[in-house]
Write a structure and sequence with these properties.
This protein is an all-alpha fold. It contains 14 helices and no strands. It starts with a helix and ends with a helix.
């Protein structure tokens, strides 16, 4: 009798039989859940695309580049000649928004222009916040791209429609390599690089009903690829091209 009592005392309850399959399902599910969450949570699309920091001056590209039709190069003066597209210095802004009484400055009394006017008076730069900021180990040349028909819109999106500039593309290495493998998908005539509304169908003289934009882009891009002598795919996808 005593041995039977001891055996009953140490028996697991019947519901414990369900613990093993639950543990197995938890281990398998957790093993899948963690990499999926980390993969999507730390992806370039999650971390970078859509980033739109507030600037010290709420500059509207939709107004300046869109409604007023200002050329990108008026403010970003080095984009054709240097690896970087210069952030406009205060004097560029002051050429339109002078605070001086004897000059007819545009909206000179606007409080929003306070940081620009303070910079003009003190000589201290406006602390603009970079939206597109590649790591130091990445070499990217704006001049190499715009002088071979790669438009601002390919990387920065329709900036002329943005009240506040945001990252339209994730600018990951995979995204760059996709373009380097098939540059024809991004090429246009060099004199149309800053025309953000350019359409390849207009270049071919075809209507939008007879050809898709993608088809027209490929045709135009392949022609320009030959014209601009862009053929060395090995160099275009070599690690040393961007990591120097």
């Amino acid at each position: 009798m005593a041995s039977n009592a001891n055996a009953t005392r140490f028996m697991f309850p019947r519901w414990a039989n369900y613990l093993l399959p639950l543990l197995v399902l938890g281990a398998v599910g957790g093993g899948l859940y963690v990499p999926v969450v980390i993969g999507f949570g730390l992806s370039a699309d999650t971390l970078w695309r859509g980033y739109a920091p507030a600037q010290p001056v709420p500059f509207s590209h939709a107004l300046h580049a869109g409604e007023l039709g200002m050329d990108c190069r008026y403010c970003h003066t080095t984009v054709e000649d240097a690896s970087f597209a210069a952030i406009p210095h205060t004097q560029v802004c002051i050429s339109c928004h002078s605070p001086e009484d004897n000059i007819a400055g545009v909206r000179k009394n606007s409080e929003l222009l306070g940081p620009v006017h303070a910079s003009y008076e003190t000589g201290e730069s406006v602390e603009w916040i970079k939206v597109h900021d590649q790591p130091d180990y990445v070499y990217f040349s704006h001049s190499a791209h715009v002088n071979r028909g790669v438009s601002c819109v390919e990387c920065h999106g329709r900036v002329d429609r943005m009240e506040r500039v945001y990252m339209a593309e994730n600018m990951s290495m995979a995204w760059c390599l996709d373009c380097h493998r098939e540059p024809e998908q991004a090429l246009r005539p060099v004199d149309e690089v800053t025309n953000l509304a350019w359409d390849p169908r207009d270049e071919l003289g075809v209507s939008r009903d007879t050809m898709t934009r993608a088809e027209a882009q490929r045709r135009v891009g392949l022609e320009l690829k030959d014209e601009y002598n862009i053929h060395n795919r090995t160099y275009m996808t070599s690690c040393s091209t961007c990591h120097r």
